[in-house]
Amino acid sequence: YIKDSVEASRDDYMLGVYDKELEDEMLLNSYKRESYRKGIEEGINDNKRIIAKNMLEKDFETTTISEITGLSLEEVENLRIK
Q1: Among 3, 47, 51, 82, which residue's Cβ finds the most Cβ atoms within 10 Å?
Q2: How would DSSP label each residue in 22-68?
Q3: Would the pLDDT of 29 be above 60?
């Protein structure tokens, strides 16, 4: 096994295969992190909209809701319509 590993480490083709596998693994991990980050952001934005809807039901002003939640005035107004 060790002899095969040493020989493979000297083989340009095998080094290329290893590099490609390493590159693919790194790319896959970056996609996983990106998906995780996007999921977290979507969850945070969903919570902001829920809070904004609750504030609309309590008759808070649109500008106040926007300032507190970070949602745009347009986003808050769209929630009022729904």
Answers
A1: 51
A2: HHHHHHHHHHHHHHHHHHHHHHHHHHHHHHHHHHHHTT--HHHHHHH
A3: yes
